[in-house]
Amino acid sequence: MAGLIEFNLFAPRNQESALIGSFSEWKEIPMQKGEDGYFRTEVKLEDGSYQYKFRVQTKSTNFVPDEWVDVIDPYATDINEERKYGVVRIKDGQRIVDTYVWQHDDKPLPNNHELVIYEMHVADFTDDEVDPEKRGKYTGVIEKLDYLSELGINAIELMPVNEYPGNYSWGYKVRHFFATESSYGTTEDLKHLIDECHGRGIRVFMDGIYNHTDEECPLMLIDRNYWYYEHMHYPEDPDNYWGPEFNYNNYDEKLDVKPAWKYIGDVVQFWIKEYHIDGVRFDAVRQLANFEFLDWLAKQGQIHAAPKPFYNIAEHIPDTNTVVKPDGPLDGCWHESFHYFMIPHITGEKFELERLKEVLDPRKQGYATAINTINYLATHDRQRLLRELGNRGIFDTAAFERAKLAAVLLITAMGIPMLWMGEEFGEYQAKSESVTQPQPISWSLLAGELNHDLFEYYKKLIALRRQTPALQNGNIEFFYENADAKLLAFHRCYEWGSSVVVVANFSDQNLNKYHIPNFPTANSWQDWFADCEVELEKDGTVIDLPAHTAKILISQ
Question: What residues act catalytically?
Answer without folding.
Answer: 283, 315
